[in-house]
Amino acid sequence: MNPLQYEKRYHELVVSLDALGTTTVDVHRYQNNDEKYKTNAFWGNKEALKHKDQVLGKVNDEVQGEQKAAAAAARPGADVPRIEALRQAFGVAVHLKNAEVLRRLKPSLMSVHSGKGSPEEIAAVLHLVARYKLYDKAIADQAAAVRGYCDKYIGLDCNGFVGNYALATGRTRKPGDVIPSFAPKSDLRTRIEDVQADDVMVFSDYGHITVIHSIAPLTTGADGKPARDCVVVESSAHNPSKGALTEHGGLQHSTYSIRSVGANKIFSIERPKGEALIQAYIAPLK
């Protein structure tokens, strides 16, 4: 799997609804609910955390219900026939299994509502939203309501996308890892010629991270200096793919152009190609 394929999974995510239906959601907005950003009207989404708490409350209620049902099924009877004893044992196992599945989903509720969710986690949480009917009741169609919930309360921040891509492709980095950890000094690229697909670009102020999907051969730019174009995937408050700063940014891909690298291992890169230079470290994704 490559970065573009992983991006597509977010944009075309199939979610199971209540009963037997499904819908396809587009997880696209930039969302960073870290402590210092969650109240920011542009980057954060404090309302999403309130809705996370609503889902968590319903999960806790269901876990308690399953535990009570398991306890009831396990009550000994007087000389219970073997078939009935087996049925009761099966009932206990089912209720405890359901409770355990729900407990394991709890950490995903925070990840999904704070910009760190994987496609699988987001699909599971949106199924719970449908099951508990925690969407906007004014929308009669459940599929549309779940899509609306996703648009309002679920998104990705930059290391949320790159970290989940790393996990999905068998690497060690995770969505909760701080941005500097993706580009340790010992791993930094020092030549334009050495940059590869699946390398990460970490902005020199450590405020943003992207992953390189593909990279072209080294050429000469219009100014006569070296240039190497690359397709980059990122979740960003800025929209390089559209050349604008939009309300919620987005999960997207665009073409950058790497122009030079200094002795300090910091690359100068057009973001997107033909536009202003940014400064970034480049390192293999591990």
SSE blueprint and pairings:
Blueprint: H1 3-11, E1 13-16, E2 22-25, H2 46-73, H3 82-113, H4 119-132, H5 142-153, H6 158-168, E3 199-203, E4 209-215, E5 219-220, E6 226-239, E7 244-261, E8 267-270, E9 277-284
Antiparallel strand pairs: 1-2, 3-4, 3-9, 4-6, 5-6, 6-7, 7-8, 8-9
Helix pairs in contact: 2-3, 3-4
What would your notes on this structure say?
- With 286 residues, the chain is α+β, with helices and mostly antiparallel strands.
- Helix content is 37%, strand content 23%.
- The chain contains six helices and nine strands.
- Strands 3-4-6-7-8-9 form a six-stranded antiparallel β-barrel.
- Helix 2 (46-73) packs antiparallel against helix 3 (82-113) and helix 3 packs across helix 4 (119-132).
- 33% of the residues are buried.
Characterize this entry briefly.
The chain is built from six helices and nine strands, in the order H-E-E-H-H-H-H-H-E-E-E-E-E-E-E. The protein has 286 residues and is of the alpha+beta class.
